Model the fold of this input.
Amino acid sequence: MKALELVRISYTYPGGTKALDSVSFSVEEGESVAILGSNGAGKSTLLDLLLGWNKARGILLFGKDLADYGRKELGRNLALVPQSEHYNFSFTLLEYTLFGRSPYLSQMGTPTEEDAAIAVEALGEVGLEAYQDRPITSLSGGEHQLLLLARAIAQQSRILLLDEPTSALDPANRMRVISILKNLFEKGKTLLFTTHDANLAYELATHVAMLKKGRLLCYGTKEETVTSEMLTTLYETPLKVGSIEGRTLIY
Amino acid sequence: MSANRSYAAEQKRRLIRLSLLLLATIALASLFLFAGRYPEPGFTFPSDWTDPMVSTIVFQVRLPRILLALLAGAMLSASGFTFQMLFSNPLVEPGFLGVSQGSAFGAALMIVLGTGSSALVQASATLFGLTALLASHLLAKRFRFGGALLRLVLSGIAVSAIYTSALGVVKLVAEPTRDLQDITFWMMGGLWNATWNQIFSILSIVVACLVILFSYRWKLNLLSLQEKTSFSVGLNPKRDRLILLVVATVGTTLTISITGLIGWVGLITPHLGRKLFGSDSSYSFPASMILGALFLLLCDTIGRTLLPTEIPIGLLTSFLGAIIFIVILSLKHQEGKA
Done:
């Protein structure tokens, strides 16, 4: 089933900057898609459109126009892992993870024991369940990223949107996040993430959409798209795709 | 699942503590009916209920005053809490967007125009409080500097300043023996002139505001996060913010149109609520409402019983509020225990 279908998506910011120009591709449920491009290529703009945060015509989510989704219904289908989160109140990890249960609650509702069980399980998936009663202000940068992931996992959406999921992490935490995401992918979750890191794209994605100056340079399986020629065109810098100890590496 | 049970147990513990706090507040409020300076200073349980003076003082003077203290305290605290969550800033209160200054100007203007109608003073205070909110909001949209939050803060400062100077002008032209005194008393805040009529005139709307804010108690958590995050979990943050801002402002301005400006309640009791009940606003919000009611009740009771002359409530809320503020901030290191 097609999870997402983008038909000639364009977007111009109110200030007049054209950020996306006629971008089309579609994503099958269960695929993992990297939106690859340099800074300012339109990756975040595309993510905002998919989230419904900014509006554009021509996006179908599971066959239905994105604009026809109710707010909560959309929250049950799409979860966002932002690059960072700011908070001035010291919620506990469990309280913060429970925020992901919001699309399932009524106007007056507060989380139930069942919601708490789901949140604890999500914390378990990222390895933070032992810290569930600690305040979020006590977390390190890496743990912080894991918590954002746990909140999105607790949302139990069919698609996970991730904005530069590893760009601020040290190698150990980067590998941890990648392994959690691979695990989610293997369980059938559709992943869509922005990145400027071709190595991450190759490691985690089944498909790659390359964006350059708001236009889609190419879309296809990673084997088709992640080539020395394409990457060199994308980044306007000589790049090679090679292999070390059986692993593909872009350098 | 053990973690699951511990969550349920913690919720139950908080609910029990919340109920105890509510009961204690009700008990104290009932007790303070008998505190005052008649028949003699201190606590006196009247032996002679047939004394018309006793029943007048208890039911026509003290009871409305106590109820007003509870209502105003709960409303000011609920508004303060709401503003703090919406602006993701624990140092914010309704005065922040020029609301208090706008109301003060509105009230003063109507006093000077000399209509003599307290309903008109209330209406004018509410109207100008809302105007201040609207002005801050519109001005923030026009600013070309900083993020949305910073723009709102800056426009709030500007709007506050404009209303403060306008208030100065009104005070200059006010008739000094009567109107100026009224304005000055209003600026200091007080519950001494509480009557049943006044309470009934604001009761339904203020209670409605409290109920609406209470219904958002869990969502307030989410609205303190980045707008994009609260949007992604199914909220409509722009609409929710607008509703909450307007409701909190209407509740506050209506309240202070009767009580005058009472500072610190909206700032301090939400802090206390979070300190005692944790950051999750599903419990700290109702806790703050009750604590606000309790705090104002205590201040007002001290103010009307301690000295032969009444101590203005604004003085007491500032004094006690500042002390509590200092204590809470000094205990900051405990936050890690959550």
